[in-house]
C-alpha cells in the first residue's frame, strides 16, 4: 500500500512507574506520544511506509522525539520548526476500581501555534495514498483547525483517502465547538472511526440502551449510529470501537465496521489491561492497514480489533505488534503461551 501521512500534536509523556499515583512518584518515565504519531508508528511496525507531520521547537527534547519516531522508521522530513516548547502529557495508570488519570500541558506549544504557511501539503502528499488525523488536532485551536482543513482539501485534490478518528476530548473543547468544527472536516473524510461516546458527544447521534459508565452496550444500536453517520455526512466507511469497561484493569473489547450498507462485528476479547492509552490509535492503524491491503470487510474489523487488543497489553502508547503477530490472534491463537 502507499504511504500513510499522519498530522497532529506530538508530546512528551511523563508517568510514574508502574501503578504509583502522581503524588507517590519519586521518579518518572519519559516517552513520546500523539494520536496520529501512534498510528504512524503502529503502521510502520506492520511494514507500511509512514510519515508524521507536526511542528516542533528547535531544542534537544524535540530532537529526542524525532529520534523516537525514526527508530521505528517513521519519516519526519517535513516537520517545520517553530514555537518555544513541546507539549506534555501526564498519565497516572489506574487499577481495578481506580481509574486512570490524564493531565495535559499542551497550550502555546510549537504545534498549537502553527500556521497554514508552515506546510507545503502538495509536497508532503507526494507518493501518499492515505492521510490520517483525529479530532484532537483541530481541538487545539482555530489556527490548527485551519491547517487541518487545508490538508484535507489538498488530500482530496491529490486523490488521497482521508481517515479520521473523532477522538472527542472534553478537556480541549465543548461539544458545541467540536460539532461545528468537525462537521466542516467530515466533508473530506472517507473512513471515520469513533468509540461508544464520540458519535453522541460530537455529532449528537447516540445508540439506544447504552450506558458506558455501567458497561452496558447495545451493539445493534451502533448499526443505526453508523448508518446515520454515513447518510448524513456521505462517509462510505464507519468503524466503531466497543469497550465494555469492567474495571480499570479488565475490559471487554470489540468493534464494528459499517460499509456498503452492511455491518460487520468482530469477536469480543476479554483484555487484562497493561496500558489502555493508545488503544484507539492502534485500532485505527489496524483498520487503515487492512483497508489498504484490500482485506474483505469482516477481516478488516477482525484485524483492527486484534491489533488494538494486543496494544493494550503493552506499556506506553504504541502498538509494536507485527502483521504476523496480529494475524496469529485473528486466526484464533490468543493463548498467550510462551513462543520458543
Descriptive overview:
The protein has 340 residues and is an alpha/beta fold. Helix content is 33%, strand content 23%. The protein has helices at residues 35-45, 60-71, 121-124, 142-157, 175-185, 198-203, 219-233, 279-292, 297-311, 323-330; strands at 3-7, 11-16, 28-33, 50-53, 74-75, 87-92, 101-105, 128-134, 161-165, 191-194, 237-245, 250-259, 262-265, 269-272. Strands 1, 4, 5, 8, 9, 10, 11, 12, 13 and 14 form a 10-stranded mixed sheet that branches. A 4-stranded mixed sheet has the order 3-2-6-7. Helix 1 (35-45) packs across helix 8, helix 8 (279-292) runs antiparallel to helix 9 and helix 9 packs across helix 10.
Give keywords.
globular, 340 residues, alpha/beta, four-stranded mixed sheet, 10 helices, ten-stranded mixed sheet
Global geometry: globular
End-to-end Cα distance: 32 Å
Helix content: 25-40%
* Helix-and-strand structural type: alpha/beta
Q: Using only CA atoms, what is the Rg?
A: 19 Å
Calculate the mean pLDDT score and round it.
95
Q: How many beta-strand elements?
A: 14
Spell the H/E element sequence.
Answer: EEEHEHEEEHEHEHEHHEEEEHHH
Figure out the total of helices: 10
Q: Which band does the percent of strand residues land in?
A: 15-25%
Largest sheet: 10 strands, mixed
Low-confidence stretches: none
Amino acid at each position: 500500500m502507499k504511504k500513510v501521512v499522519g498530522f497532529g500534536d506530538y508530546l512528551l509523556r511523563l508517568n510514574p512507574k508502574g501503578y504509583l499515583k502522581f503524588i507517590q512518584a519519586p521518579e518518572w518515565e519519559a516517552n513520546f506520544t500523539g494520536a496520529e504519531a501512534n498510528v504512524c508508528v503502529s503502521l510502520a511496525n506492520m511494514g507500511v511506509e509512514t510519515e508524521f507531520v507536526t511542528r516542533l521547537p528547535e531544542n534537544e527534547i524535540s530532537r529526542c522525539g524525532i529520534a523516537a519516531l525514526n527508530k521505528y522508521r517513521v519519516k519526519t522530513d517535513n516537520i517545520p520548526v517553530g514555537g518555544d516548547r513541546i507539549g506534555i502529557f501526564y498519565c497516572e495508570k489506574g487499577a481495578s476500581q481506580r481509574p486512570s488519570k490524564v493531565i495535559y500541558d499542551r497550550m502555546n506549544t510549537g504545534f498549537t501555534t502553527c500556521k497554514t504557511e508552515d506546510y507545503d501539503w502538495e509536497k508532503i502528499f507526494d507518493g501518499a495514498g492515505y492521510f490520517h488525523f483525529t479530532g484532537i488536532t483541530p481541538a487545539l485551536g482555530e489556527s490548527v483547525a485551519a491547517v487541518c482543513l487545508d490538508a484535507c482539501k489538498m488530500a482530496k485534490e491529490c486523490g488521497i483517502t482521508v481517515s479520521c478518528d473523532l477522538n472527542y476530548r472534553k478537556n480541549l473543547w465543548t461539544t458545541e465547538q467540536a460539532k461545528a468544527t468537525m462537521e466542516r472536516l467530515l466533508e473530506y473524510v472517507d473512513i471515520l472511526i469513533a468509540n461508544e461516546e464520540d458519535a453522541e458527544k460530537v455529532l449528537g447521534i447516540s445508540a439506544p440502551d447504552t450506558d458506558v459508565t455501567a458497561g452496558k452496550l447495545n451493539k445493534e444500536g451502533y448499526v443505526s449510529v453508523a448508518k446515520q453517520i454515513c447518510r448524513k455526512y456521505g462517509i462510505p466507511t464507519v468503524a466503531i470501537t466497543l469497550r465494555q469497561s469492567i474495571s480499570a484493569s479488565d475490559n471487554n473489547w470489540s468493534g464494528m465496521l459499517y460499509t456498503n450498507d452492511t455491518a460487520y462485528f468482530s469477536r469480543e476479547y476479554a483484555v487484562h489491561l497493561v496500558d489502555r492509552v493508545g488503544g484507539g490509535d492502534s485500532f485505527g492503524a489496524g483498520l487503515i492497514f487492512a483497508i489498504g491491503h484490500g482485506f474483505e470487510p469482516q477481516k478488516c474489523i477482525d484485524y483492527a480489533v486484534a491489533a488494538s487488543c494486543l496494544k493494550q497489553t503493552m506499556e506506553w502508547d504504541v502498538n509494536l505488534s507485527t502483521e504476523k503477530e496480529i494475524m496469529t490472534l485473528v486466526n484464533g491463537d490468543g493463548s498467550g503461551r510462551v513462543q520458543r
